[in-house]
């Protein structure tokens, strides 16, 4: 604080300086959770509170994204317009918080600013999409149980929260979603991709694939349908084996597993 105040007062031009990404001194301060410096800069140089970087991120995006509760709460209560600000892709402060798994800040934002729980970015991703995509189980479970409508939300491409977690290869979240919301295991997005396609194209994790496959099979059979892995195809007719092959065959345990599995199905 002492050094910061000295520089600000002795060299005032520094207070408006930005880095190559448009980041301000207040954004740096908020990103690291320095409450005393944050308050000093906000009160002494109020224009900094509305400044955004090149990606359209505000100081609140920074504090929420890095999980600094004290700074986030101060900014929300002192500058309420920041709570509805979005970045250049429509990303909200809650989405930033959820993408990094900050439970305390997430809960505060949800309870204090409930409109954020239904807000979507330009691709119509919800806060739950973000937490699932990055594998944050505690935040994911809280959002699912507190705001159940989020579990059926899809992006403009038809991507579900299960798809998001499968693409990221997050076993714990995938298992939770499959067990708690089994209908998600049959969902496909606009290209026809199924959650098993996502795993095959994004990971080489045999354990994740077999875990999700078990739930896919159970759900299909519970609806009176038969499970046939070779019949799960994208709109272009690609199987999970095709997508695993496209990802690369070298050191790809999942590809090797699927080759054997498809071979058994064909006999």
From TrEMBL:
Keywords, alphabetical: ANK repeat, Repeat
InterPro entries, A to Z: Ankyrin_rpt, Ankyrin_rpt-contain_sf
Pfam family, one: Ank_2
Superkingdom as given in the UniProt entry: Eukaryota
Record protein name field: Uncharacterized protein
Source organism (scientific name): Mizuhopecten yessoensis
Native organism taxonomy: Eukaryota, Metazoa, Spiralia, Lophotrochozoa, Mollusca
